[in-house]
Design brief:
Largest sheet: 14 strands, antiparallel
Number of strands: 19
CATH architecture of the largest domain: Beta Barrel
Radius of gyration: 28 Å
Strand content: over 45%
CATH topology of the largest domain: Porin
Number of domains: 2
Length: about 425
């Protein structure tokens, strides 16, 4: 039998013709609400299965309800989830905000069930204004085993203290290289409406071994850090506290560095709105005690210094996209020319239907490297990143543009071939 090879473009024409003759998918419902769910942590296949009464569209401009989700860390170590339901078209002007709390020990399935329940509750108002109200059934469960009043205060034997311990490490070995790394850490926190207390201790030990030209090179990097803060709430716009830390670093030439000082923060927007918009101004003044491994370029092995820092932080998440930025400026009191400015901007903007643009920019102006050792780095130090290098700046950036077109509906759940193919 003789085999003939069908040209690729001919197959493409057949596919396009097939698409043009395909009937509208039966999963698309004519009278149902069109919703756009902007939720990076949601299991979308699960949401489509649990809430099939709506149409899921791929562009927020096609939606009757634009749902913007956000998440911030809660005092328990879990997450505080916020969902803002923004009405569009005939629902314009209708706005609802619902919240759900997820504990740190919640399973993935438990989390997605709680999210689905919250979304169902938020959609009731809008479904009630459509012909689908006849499909709506609402029920409440009653805990008949509970012997306590619903208004009884909650007893917390831990008094809001949360402890998190991490023990991590990895071994990566080939014939000529080996990397051994340990990353233990412990975090202790207490967060209440009046107080925020946090202590974190972490360590990084990395031993890289290389066999080069018959010789074995060992590269050891170690960093230990202990940081803490004690913050008191002063209303919806002000906070004050004390921050400090102790660290050692073979990369930065610190045998021991100690920092401590007071700080005050002003929030332009009320803290209660922090899940969707933040604009904070933080000022701190602190004392520093440095003990170096090697004598520095300024001839110091020990020194005590004073410094101050001012940080402006902003974060927004709305239906037009998200924007986050931070600028921090700091300097030593003994010499104003010893300063550092760090700027970070991350943004994702929905410009028009189907088109979005994301970018990030990071820039540091560095003029305070007083810790650099007098003896410069060796070639191995430079190649293996074992020692901080002299520089006056650090810059990085990135840009991504996405354009999506075609059907606006995205209701189907199909989990076939959800795996990574080894095709390179």
């Amino acid at each position: 039998m003789k085999l003939t090879r069908t040209p690729f473009f001919f197959l493409l024409l057949i596919a396009v013709k097939g698409f043009s003759q395909t009937k509208p998918d039966s999963a698309v419902q004519d009278r149902a609400l069109n919703i756009f769910l902007d939720c990076g942590y949601c299991d979308m296949d699960y949401m489509r299965s649990e809430i099939p009464v709506v149409n899921y569209v791929r562009d927020r401009k096609e939606a009757n309800i634009d749902i913007v989700a956000s998440s911030i860390a809660c005092g328990s170590g879990g997450s505080c989830l916020t969902f803002v339901f923004i009405g569009q078209g005939k629902f314009k002007g209708q706005l609802d905000t619902l919240r759900a709390n997820v504990t740190s020990f919640e399973t993935d399935d438990g989390m997605r069930q709680k999210i689905a329940q919250t979304l169902k509750a938020g959609l009731i108002r809008y479904i009630a204004q459509t012909p689908d109200i006849s499909k709506l059934s609402i029920s409440f469960s009653k805990d008949t085993n509970s012997k306590t009043s619903i208004n009884a205060p909650v007893t917390d034997k831990w008094r809001s203290w949360v402890f998190t311990v991490n023990l991590g490490g990895n071994l990566n070995q080939q014939q000529l290289t080996r990397q051994l790394m340990f990353t233990p850490s412990i975090n202790i926190s207490k967060i209440t409406p009046e107080w925020k207390i946090g202590v974190n201790a972490s360590s990084l030990y990395m031993n890289n071994t290389y066999s080069i030209s018959g010789q074995t090179v060992d590269a050891i990097m170690r960093t230990d850090a202990f940081t803490g803060f004690f913050v008191k709430s002063m209303g919806e716009h002000f906070s004050s506290g004390v921050v400090g830390g102790v660290n050692t670093s073979t990369v930065s030439n610190f045998k021991l560095q100690e920092k401590i000082g007071p700080a005050i923060e002003y929030s332009v927007f009320p803290y209660s709105e922090s899940t969707h918009r933040q604009l904070h101004l933080l000022y701190s003044i602190y004392g520093i005690s440095n003990s170096y491994v090697d004598t520095t370029i300024f001839g110091k092995i020990n020194e005590r210094l004073g410094a101050e820092a001012l940080t402006l932080y902003s974060q927004y998440k709305q239906n037009w996209g998200s924007l986050a930025g931070q600028i921090t400026a700091s300097h030593y009191f003994y010499d104003l020319k010893k300063y550092e400015v760090n700027m970070n901007i991350n943004a994702n903007i929905n410009l028009f239907e189907g088109f979005s643009m994301g970018f990030f920019v990071s820039l540091s102006l560095i003029h305070d490297q007083i810790y650099l050792p007098a003896v410069g780095p060796t070639d191995n130090d430079i190649l293996l990143g074992l020692q901080a290098l002299a520089t006056t700046y650090n810059f990085s950036s990135g840009l991504q543009m996405t354009y999506t077109f075609g059907s606006i509906y995205n209701n189907i759940v199909n989990s076939r071939f959800n795996l990574q193919f080894p095709y390179n």
